[in-house]
Amino acid sequence: MRIPQIQIHQEYAWIGIQTTSAKQEIEQPQATVEIKQTSAQLTIEQPNGELAIDQTRARDALAMGNNLEMMKRIYQKSAELALQGISRIVEKGDRMATIHDGSNPIPEMAMDWRRTFPEFAFEGPASMDNVDIQYTAHRPIIEWNLGGVEYNVTTHKAEHQYTPGKAEIYLRQRNSVEFTLPQVDLTL
User: Fold this and answer.
1) What is the pLDDT of residues 90-113, one digit of tens each?
2) Helix (H/G/I), strand (E/B), else coil: 122
3) Closest CA to 151 of 50, 33, 46, 58
4) Which domain of life is it from (predicted)?
5) Domain boundaries, the chain
6) Rounded Cα distance, 119 and 78, in Å
7) Do residues 24 and 171 make contact, with C-beta atoms less than 8 angstroms apart?
8) What is the pLDDT of residue 6?
9) What is the chain's mean pLDDT, rounded?
């Protein structure tokens, strides 16, 4: 005798998922930068130096100096020269008085006449330091103005677009259980 068997057939449920990815777009325009630069300025002014040359003493040493100074010197030496001249005349007189010794003083004195003429120096003292030189330098005048840089920056906000993603979940196949019963012979 055969034993009837029940057949069970089962199918599982299948879930289907269909997704759409999220989209995100971010865009930011570049910032606008305005730069304004003021140039630095530099002004330099150099005044000329001053040179003073005093050659009064050099001209005086060459007897080309001040007339009043030369006349003063002549006046001061005149008395001394007059005394020297008187002294020479006395000396010549003494020589002529010695005529008895047989000498001839008159031709000798005539020959010495030019040599005995007194030197009359009315020029000033000569020296290598007679010219005075004085130089006055002037400092340069420097003025400056610092320049600068001005920045003007305009920023722009970011533009953001977001599209959310989707997840669609559906039942692709339903679950099922199927029982198949054997045929039972009810006659006995």
Assistant:
1) 888 888 888 777 777 777 777 776
2) coil
3) 33
4) Bacteria
5) 48-137
6) 12
7) no
8) 85
9) 85
